[in-house]
């Protein structure tokens, strides 16, 4: 699978989870939401756990929404 295909699918996933305002994800260390650091790392960890099937998509969405509200 090519990089642009993977990138487009990840952006679609992030948008479907309601974690973006529709603008493309940044490559400069920001998460596309104007935040960086621990918040981005926690989201990455949740998505990695989802990829390993340790949590369901619904559980990931709930966790990520809760982090977004903080």
Summarize the structure.
With 70 residues, the chain is mainly α.
Unreliable residue stretches: 27-36
Globally, the shape reads: globular
Total number of helices: 3
How many beta-strand runs?
Answer: 0
Strand percentage lies at: under 5%
Distance between the termini: 35 Å
H/E element string?
Answer: HHH
Please give the largest β-sheet: none
Tell me, rounded to a whole number, the average pLDDT.
75
Assembly type: single chain
Provide the structure class.
Answer: mainly alpha
Q: Gyration radius, to the nearest Å?
A: 12 Å
Give the helix proportion (percent range).
Answer: 55-70%
Mind explaining what this structure looks like?
The chain has 70 residues and is mainly alpha-helical. The protein has three helices and no strands. Helix 2 packs antiparallel against helix 3 (57-69). The radius of gyration is 12 Å and the shape is globular. It starts with a helix and ends with a helix.
Write the layout of secondary structure elements.
Layout: H1 3-16, H2 38-51, H3 57-69
Structure characteristics:
70 residues; mainly alpha
């Amino acid at each position: 699978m090519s990089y642009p295909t993977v990138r487009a699918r990840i952006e679609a996933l992030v948008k479907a989870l309601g974690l973006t305002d529709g603008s493309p994800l940044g490559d400069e260390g920001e998460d596309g939401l104007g935040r960086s650091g621990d918040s981005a790392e926690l989201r990455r960890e949740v998505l990695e756990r989802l990829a390993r099937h340790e949590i369901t998509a619904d559980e990931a969405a709930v966790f990520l929404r809760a982090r977004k509200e903080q």
